[in-house]
Amino acid sequence: MGVRASKLNRLIGTPRIKRFGVPPLTPKGYVPVSVGVNDDTRRFIVHTTTLRDADFLEMLCKSVEEYGFCNEGILRIPYEAKDFEEWIMRRAKRRNVRVN
């Protein structure tokens, strides 16, 4: 029975606030990860089951060596973004293959 914020703003004449530069919310069950080295970083959203993968755990160990445990904000992994994307794609293909 409530009024949506955008409709309420039109009713009372409040200007819309544009949220440029703010990353979208992460869906439930996913973790945002920033992957890359130097200035070449990309943001990925990975499923929480990925956190148990042996290769991903190895990447997390490298992250601890680079940034330590007291890193604030998004999880950062010092790995080539292109290679990480290829790894994610290979992992997704493995999970979709079913053996009968």
Describe what you observe in this structure:
There is one protein chain. With 100 residues, the protein is α+β, with helices and mostly antiparallel strands. Helices cover 38% and strands 19% of the residues. It has three helices and three strands. The protein has a three-stranded mixed beta sheet with strand order 2-1-3. A hairpin with a 2-residue loop joins β1 and β2. The longest helix has 16 residues, at 81-96. It starts with a helix and ends with a helix. Mean pLDDT is 77; it is low at 14-19.
Can you give keywords for this protein?
100 residues, alpha+beta, 3-stranded mixed sheet, 38% helix, globular
Overview in brief:
By secondary structure, the chain is α+β, with helices and mostly antiparallel strands. The protein is 38% helix and 19% strand.
Radius of gyration: 19 Å
What share of the residues does DSSP label as strand, in percent? 15-25%
Distance between the termini: 50 Å
Q: What is the number of helices?
A: 3
What are the low-pLDDT stretches, counting only 5+ consecutive residues below 50?
14-19
Helical percentage: 25-40%
Number of strands: 3
User: How much is the average pLDDT?
Assistant: 77
Shape: globular
Name the strands of the widest sheet in spatial order. 2-1-3
Return the string of H and E elements.
HEEHEH
Summarize the main sheet.
Answer: 3 strands, mixed
Structural class: alpha+beta
